Amino acid sequence: MKDFRIAVIGxxxxxxxxxxxxxxxxxxxSLVTKHPQLAMKISHEGIHAFGxxxxxxxxxxxxxxxxxxxxYFDLAMIATKGYDMSEAAEKVLPYLRDDSRVIxxxxxxxxxxxxxxxGKERTVGCVVGWGATMRHPxxxxxxxxxxxxxxxxxxxxxxxxxxxxxxxxxxxxxRISDNIESSLYSKLxxxxxxxxxxxxxxxYLGEILAIKKARDILIHxxxxxxxxxxxxxxxxxxxxxxxxxxxxxxxxxxxNFKQHLTIRVIGYKxxxxxxxxxxSIERGKRTEVNNYNGYIAIKxxxxxxxxxxxxxxxxxxxxxxxxxxxxxxxxFKALTG
Length: 337
Prior knowledge:
Blueprint: E1 5-9, H1 13-24, E2 28-32, H2 36-44, E3 47-51, E4 56-58, E5 62-63, E6 73-78, H3 85-92, E7 96-104, H4 111-118, E8 123-128, E9 131-136, E10 139-144, E11 148-152, H5 159-168, E12 174-176, H6 180-201, H7 205-209, H8 212-232, H9 245-249, H10 255-269, H11 276-282, H12 293-302, H13 308-321, H14 331-334
Parallel strand pairs: 1-2, 1-6, 2-5, 3-10, 6-7, 7-8, 11-12
Antiparallel strand pairs: 3-4, 8-11, 9-10
């Protein structure tokens, strides 16, 4: 693996942990954050990453704007929110070589938008299959282990993926997918369920999935998402190698009972999980619902598939963002499907 110059764009939970671990591993990393004081703190006092990644205090060269970067970078990892991704990609263009690669580390599927900016030949899709949260600026926790899944966007594999895989392996085990769109869509479905239901209800996952109406809604979300995937020609891989959506939706004797039982088991295992989008709302920020349920709804319209539940959920979250709807479990009752 050659020596890479790496720019991590975004000093939130995923970007902060990524930059800290790669810097600790001896790689040439620069971190971009929107906030000048935070950039100075990370550069001179260090960033604190803890949790499943161990306990890391390390100084990382940080700047408050992409325009403050110097020279060219072999690899840009964009770890902003989905709605900021395209702007970040535009700004990083002057710092890329023709053969540089840009990784989309957003939730949802933003790779088409990224490819429109930096070119398909530079675009690498990435599933972030581990949990993280920012406790305070410069204090980031890896809340659960997991993996990265990477792949070239709508083109064949190349040697670059092996190099990138080697870099990301410093953080968590990383695998290369022959069909990154399938991998991304698999996680998108999960985000569309647990992240969005957390926003509209304000509950932890265990509390949500103890409610039958919420479980019914989750089944509808998955059903609509798979119908859209079928229309798009995507065969969705099992989530985390365990949840096979096609088997989950299969009709048969006691199928509904098995669906609800599966959901309850998941709800118990991850009962203390709090929606990342709910945390965004609590911090006064927007959610990424357009990259979750909104994506399913848009692709449904493009392919002639009805997605009433995902459309309603997208609308509800936007109403919450605008202060027109309260966060309450009563929102479950307002959903029809």
